[in-house]
Design brief:
Layout lengths: L1 E12 L2 E12 L3 E5 L6 H9 L6 E6 L2 E2 L10 E4 L11 H11 L4 H14 L15 H13 L5 E5 L7 H17 L3 E6 L2 H7 L2 E6 L2 E6 L1 H6 L4 H6 L4 E9 L4 E6 L2 E6 L8 E7 L5 E2 L8 E13 L2 E8 L4 E7 L11 E6 L4 E5 L5
Parallel strand pairs: 3-8, 3-9, 6-7, 7-8
Antiparallel strand pairs: 1-2, 1-4, 4-5, 9-10, 11-12, 11-14, 12-13, 14-20, 15-19, 16-17, 16-19, 17-18
Bound molecules: adenosine-5'-triphosphate.
Length: about 350
């Protein structure tokens, strides 16, 4: 059952439409990320769910109840912000107790529930410390504990990791996921960081200029983007423009400046006409002659980047298009800059997108 149901939400500030006809549901226990570039309307959407902004039109239901006339304090939501928002003059225990007191939790329950939730976020023994005596990651877990201890219907997290350094982000990402899952807490996380969304969420709502571009699991969003924007925003991509004609069954042929490309037509892909092919770098292989990919393209190697566990080769196709192929960094010899390379891919390695859809 949907714990949160947003129906055709719109919000404008003056003549600027920040959120435009946003509709989605979040199911019990699900973690959903609102992902998109700066200014696409993620935070405004979250603020409307929390009750800090009123939609101009559309309806929001939490646990089946219409939120239209409910102020923020009458919505059972937990909030976590990027700057932790802990009270600096209170101890960790007092911070955690604060929300419970406000909600009328019986006095005798507060201390045991505080200790229990600190165990659950793996911070036993810090109850008498003040926030400044904790690391950024620990403070964020206290903020999480403070919100979770009130047993909200839904947790709203706004860029919860953006104040932390890269290594800690990765670690806390896993911890937050584990904690939210252990509470079976329905959650929405706002982030502009695609890796964070992919690592944390069961589903991603990808937004662009106030509208929903695609709602999907992280894997499907990466493997089967529906628009150029989605393909471009998530991960890296090579683009080849051409004209699609339908062959037999689910096979298509795309005529491109670098030759004909055999593609697999998927549900929702264009039937014919101008298209853009999206080929992920790890799907564009340097062919060594042992396998014969369906599409082979001659190119000139330009440069090689070693990026930790991966090697990225940049090469130029005959029509001048710069493409990248990604290989595992396992000590294989890479083509020298200026040398000829043969790149190849199969019909399933590319996604066919409508060309008119500007990224
Ligand atoms: N109170 C407001 N008054 C005027 N414009 C606003 C207001 N709140 C948000 N906006 C505008 O609405 C748009 C969407 O803002 P929002 O904060 O929702 O975007 P976002 O996707 O969360 O971006 P970011 O990641 O930068 O916070 C932005 O252009 C922003 O300037």
């Amino acid at each position: 059952m949907a714990v949160l149901d947003l129906q055709h939400i719109r919000k404008s500030f003056g003549s600027f439409t920040a959120v435009d006809d946003v509709t989605f549901e979040v199911n019990k226990g699900e973690i959903v990320a609102l992902l998109g570039p700066s200014g696409c309307g993620k935070t405004t959407t979250l603020r409307m769910i929390a009750g800090f902004e009123r939609p101009d039109s559309g309806r929001i239901f939490i646990g089946g109840a219409d939120m239209e006339l409910r102020p923020p304090y009458e919505r059972n939501v937990g909030l976590v912000f990027q700057d932790y928002a802990l009270f600096p003059h209170m101890t960790v225990a007092e911070n955690i107790a604060f929300g419970m007191k406000n909600r009328g939790t019986p006095k005798n329950e507060i201390a045991p529930r505080t200790l229990e939730v600190l165990q659950q976020v793996q911070l036993p023994g810090v109850e008498n410390r003040r926030p400044h005596a904790l690391s950024g990651g620990q403070q964020q877990r206290v903020a999480l504990a403070r919100a979770l201890v009130t047993r909200p219907d839904i947790m709203l997290l706004d860029e919860p990791l953006s104040n932390l350094d890269a290594k800690l982000r990765l670690q806390l990402r896993r911890e937050i996921r584990t904690i939210l899952a252990s509470f079976e807490c329905t959650s929405i996380i706002v982030t502009h960081d695609q890796e964070e969304a992919m690592g944390l969420a069961d589903r991603i709502v990808l937004m662009n200029r106030g509208r929903i571009e695609q709602i999907d699991t992280p894997a499907r969003l990466y493997q089967s983007p529906k628009t150029l924007f989605a393909a471009d925003f998530i991960g890296h991509a090579n683009w080849i423009h051409g004209t699609l004609s339908k062959a037999a069954g689910d096979a298509g042929i795309v005529a491109t400046p670098v030759g004909d490309v055999r593609v697999t037509m998927r549900q929702g892909s264009p039937e014919q006409g101008p298209v853009t092919l999206c080929i992920r770098p790890e799907r564009l292989a340097i062919t060594d002659g042992t396998v014969e990919p369906a599409t082979r393209m001659q190119a000139i190697a330009e440069s090689v980047d070693i990026v930790g566990a991966d090697v990225r080769l940049w090469s130029r196709l005959k029509d001048g298009t710069l493409v990248q192929s990604l290989d595992k960094n396992i000590g294989r010899a890479m083509p020298q800059p200026g040398s000829e390379v043969m790149l190849g891919f199969g019909p399933d390695d590319c996604v066919v997108l409508p060309a008119s859809d500007a990224a």
